[in-house]
Design brief:
This protein is an alpha+beta fold. The protein is built from 32 helices and 15 strands. It is globular and about 95 Å long.
């Protein structure tokens, strides 16, 4: 029996009255003119929720999200819970199940014994406060534990310590790159026993998102421990919790919501006269032509769930330009559909109405919106129920199996036998039945509920709206929240492509994160690798409290820091507003801080005058700034193609690829991202993402022979040779050869060496600023 908290108000009757009142109060907000279909759906769901005794579960989730709204926190209710109109009315989710024809029985049905499962995402900045609220609000609450088990590396390391092996030997053994014939007896014993303990529990950790709220104190069921997070945590995992009747609430944290909220705040600060749209007004955002234009062309860097190379490719192939298309794309990109080969088939049917006629009539009837192709978990359930005439209970077993939640492989196999037996009785072609089952199997562990995809698509649209209308502010919010799929460097580049002027961190203009003023983006002090977080905080607080810094002496008087940190600030360009060369500032810094830094600092009551020595004129070598930025920020702010040892001649760029279709070309690209994968035979291959000299993407495929012979050797500029190919309007290069181009010698290691090499190399090139032209 379920051991979750049984009532929200203390009385089941009061719970029923409360949930009905909340539905009535919010009906006009969600449906200004509710239809008969809406009213009937509400009655149907309320009846089933009451019958299954799930009302308290809905009300507890409502209470959590209501608290978040009162605090101004953004959240996304996702998963199969988005299939419920009651969840939509209670504002737990933001997806209209009527609009999307969502299958409520996927969420709750008469055969379901365990409570429904809401996944609620909060901003990573607010999640801790939400968790604290839940513990304060509900007395019998605990986090769920998870068991970390021994894998090869951990087992070898722990046993190596037990046997007293030196660290060097443990490192060799754990790397698995050694010949067993050369090992001594102790090392052989380590490997022998490591095999025996692999898969056994190593230590307890905290579940990524699971919280249980029980009717009785948790110590009725388990002892608890308090991990560093500071909340009581069970000593069993979610599987055991379900076995005894404790079903979890999923409270997750993500950065996408913080990007939207921070982006809106930056928009208000940087554009005070603009009327900002309600970001939750999805009816207006879905119809926005600029937003849909970005979607169609795949220009979604920084936007939630749609920025990866694979998603960018899919959007361009599908030419999606509406919400429902994005909902499908969000699920099609999952490995299940791609693995079955149905992603390509879906693209063909999406683009060609004639191709849709090839679908089996029964499958076309079951899944008209996806042209007879299984895309969502609901589709698999529908196919099992209508195509193979499995019961809804058996279909639910199938659902749990394909989502990776089944307890028994035998149970899954029994359903498989029943599927084929039924197909034979119905008279389906054996080849068709086998093909449909192959597609069902490919979903195992990867399928999305349609409501889940729809929830993700809402957040994608919100971020796309900001990217479409306020790109600079949005990209700054993305950078300040840790980026996303790519490194920070690409988001800085994208901000520049959107028209921003990027400047180095500045002690007078930057905060810990980036700041934006008009179209000028000041990188944050927190991006300087060697600057302590506490130092960055003191700089910001001093600037806010006492105004901007007047000179270097004023800065060192107000902010206590060591010579190493001050040197890093100077080298990265944080004092360029003083209009002095970096070398002059470095001399001045050593003069000002020629004394040891004490642990306890005390601000002086009166400022002390410091003698200003006159230095000879000092200058910084060309591109020395770029190498300082590479060291301190991790990337240069100038065009990286200007730093190559061999001058890069602008010949072929991404826009020229259609003219070279099915031809071999050489193209220069700056490496952005790589993806390693395996072929069906287990050989390693890669996909690459580069930037051309105009800042546009180059997509490459590296098949196993090429991947083995020409591996990636870190970020930088590469000369790529390969065949230009095209599929559904998306151009890429099948690489046959690749060579990394070395950078020029570091000019900081000697002016003489640089002048001898650099001037000869660059000739009469004019000195480039930190901000090359927009398309550079």
């Amino acid at each position: 029996k379920t051991k979750n908290q049984k009532t929200f108000t203390g009385s089941k009757n009061k719970d029923i009255k409360l949930i009905k009142r909340l539905c009535r109060d919010n009906l006009k907000y969600r449906y200004p003119k509710p239809t008969e279909e809406v009213i009937e759906r509400i009655k149907k769901e309320l009846g089933l929720i009451e019958k299954k005794d799930f009302i308290s579960y809905f009300l507890i989730n409502w209470d959590i999200t209501n608290y978040a709204r009162q605090k101004g926190y953004f959240y996304v209710g996702r998963g199969s819970g988005a299939n419920s109109i009651i969840a939509y009315l209670l504002k737990i989710t933001n997806v209209d199940p009527i609009e999307l024809d969502l299958y409520f029985e996927r969420f709750i049905n008469l055969y379901r014994e365990n409570p429904p499962d809401f996944d609620i995402d909060f901003s990573w900045k607010n999640r801790e406060d939400i968790t604290q609220y839940i513990f304060d609000r509900f007395p019998n609450t605990a986090l769920l534990a998870t068991y970390n088990t021994f894998k090869y590396r951990a087992a070898v390391r722990e046993l190596g310590k037990v046997f007293g092996l030196p660290k060097e030997e443990i490192d060799i053994l754990s790397s698995a790159k050694m010949s067993t014939s050369n090992l001594d007896q102790l090392s052989r014993l380590v490997l022998k026993y490591s095999v025996l303990i692999q898969g056994l529990p190593n230590h307890l950790s905290v579940h990524a998102c699971g919280i249980v709220i029980a009717e009785k104190p948790l110590h009725n069921y388990t002892a608890t421990f308090v991990p560093p997070k500071g909340f009581p945590t069970t000593q069993f995992d979610m599987v055991v919790a379900e076995d005894i009747g404790l079903y979890k609430f999923d409270i997750l944290g993500q950065r996408g919501l913080a990007k939207i909220k921070d982006g809106l705040a930056l928009v208000r600060d940087n554009n005070p006269s603009d009327d900002i749209i309600d970001i939750h007004d999805m009816r207006a955002i879905k119809k926005d032509k600029v937003v849909n234009g970005l979607l169609r062309t795949g220009k979604a860097i920084g936007c939630f769930y749609v920025e990866s190379p694979a998603m960018r490719m899919l959007l361009k192939k599908l030419e999606v330009e509406e919400y429902l298309g994005l909902v499908a794309a969000s699920s099609i990109i999952r490995p299940g559909v791609a693995k079955s080969g149905m992603m390509r088939e879906y693209i063909l049917r999406y683009r060609d109405p004639e191709r849709r006629k090839q679908a089996h009539p029964t499958l076309q009837k079951i899944m008209p919106d996806t042209y007879g192709i299984m895309v969502y978990q609901e589709d698999v359930i529908k196919v099992a129920h209508y195509f193979a005439q499995l019961t809804l209970g058996e279909a639910d077993v199938l659902r749990r199996g394909m989502s990776g939640k089944y307890r028994s492989r035998d149970e899954f196999l029994r359903i498989q036998d029943k599927y084929f037996s039924n197909c034979q009785k119905i008279g389906h072609d054996p080849a068709l039945a086998k093909e449909v089952w192959r597609q069902i199997e490919s979903f195992a562990g990867y399928a999305f509920a349609k409501g889940h995809s729809a929830s993700y698509a809402v957040e994608s649209y919100q971020s796309l709206y900001l990217k479409a209308h306020y790109p600079i502010e949005f990209m700054v919010a993305v950078i300040n929240n840790g980026g996303g799929f790519y490194r920070t460097e690409l988001y800085v580049h994208e901000a520049r492509m959107c028209g921003a002027l990027i400047v180095p961190p500045c002690v007078n203009q930057s905060n810990y994160g980036c700041t934006v003023k008009g179209k000028i983006v000041y990188l944050g002090l927190g991006f300087i690798h060697s600057l302590d977080r506490d130092t960055a905080r003191r700089i910001t607080e001093s600037k806010w409290a006492n105004g901007p810094f007047k000179n270097l002496a004023d800065f060192t008087e107000r902010v206590h820091l060591g010579i190493e940190e001050l040197t890093s600030l100077i080298r990265v360009g944080a004092f360029t507003f003083f209009k002095k060369d970096k070398k002059e500032l470095l001399w001045a810094a050593h003069h000002l801080l020629n004394k040891p830094v004490h642990d306890i600092q005390q601000t002086k009551l009166f400022a002390t005058e410091v003698k200003d020595y006159k230095l000879p004129r000092l200058t910084t070598a060309e591109y020395e700034d770029a190498f300082d930025q590479l060291e301190l920020l991790g990337f240069p702010l100038c065009n990286p193609f200007l730093l190559t040892e061999v001058p890069v001649v602008n010949t072929i760029c991404t826009k020229d690829l259609p003219a070279y279709l099915k031809k071999y070309i050489d193209i220069m690209g700056y490496l952005v991202a790589t993806k390693d994968t395996s072929t069906s035979s287990g050989k390693r291959m890669h996909f690459g993402t580069f930037l051309d000299q105009e800042g546009q993407f180059i997509d490459t495929t590296h098949f196993p022979p090429v991947a083995a012979r020409f591996p990636f050797t870190g970020r930088g500029v590469y000369k790529i040779s390969g065949l230009v190919v095209e599929e559904f309007g998306f151009y890429s290069i099948e690489v046959i050869r690749m060579q990394k181009i070395s950078y020029i010698p570091d000019p900081r290691f000697g002016e003489v060496g640089y002048m001898a090499f650099g001037k000869k190399h660059f000739g009469n090139r004019r000195k480039k600023s930190l901000n090359p032209p927009k398309r550079a």
